[in-house]
Specification:
By secondary structure, this protein is of the alpha/beta class. The chain has ten helices and eight strands. Bound molecules: SN-glycerol-1-phosphate.
Amino acid sequence: MNVFDKLLQNTSSFNAGYFVLIDPDKTPLNKLSVVLSEAIAAGVDAFLVGGSLLLTPDFDGYLQTFKKHSGNIPVIIFPGGVHQLSAYADALLFLSLLSGRNAHHIIGTQVIAAPIIHRLGIEPISTAYLLVESGRATSAEFMSGTVPLPRHKPEIAAAHALAASYMGFQTIYLESGSGADHSVPTEMISLISKSISIPLIVGGGIRTPEAAAEKVKAGARFIVTGNILESNNDPGFIRAFVDAVHNG
Ligand code: 1GP
């Protein structure tokens, strides 16, 4: 069974699954062992690895060390570009920035990356990436040069999500951007989850277990947090997130 199907199966008894995003530029190699063991002990379902930039040299080496400490938890690349591909991960979010109107980020980069991914033999999880306005410009917005979906127009976001599901994407990543002032509005998640049957990943600016639980109640199938765990290494905090996402 492929990584994504297994992830869906392993989390099927929970309200939703919980992903922790690790940015190599913010979590150096010498911290990986502690950070990952705490996350695993808390019960996270998968690790995402990536960032808008990637200043850390040797992505392969980083992932090799990562895999040494990640146990049985899937390691999925969340690439900021074609420079973030590696055979040492278990899978990769094969992203298309469907909320934008920049052809390079919808299909251009994907054409460059596809033969490399094929050669590396890594599982691509086809993912429609929908960026939502979040109060201030995020790295994803700036780096992609695209206009995010207006946060007060859930019907526009839902139309994008429906189009993504008709186009055959395996999942949708509804994202307000790393460190967003405002996370994705609950009404938007709710409308989208009523419109589609493919799993919805929600991330960006989720800072409390309560906020995570709200998104799950609205229909998120997976929750992603990154920044908040980088600034709070209390193991009880990450356990509270796991509990909120799994059990609501
Ligand atoms: C960013 O959705 C992820 O792409 C996580 O966002 O760092 O704000 O938790 P945060």
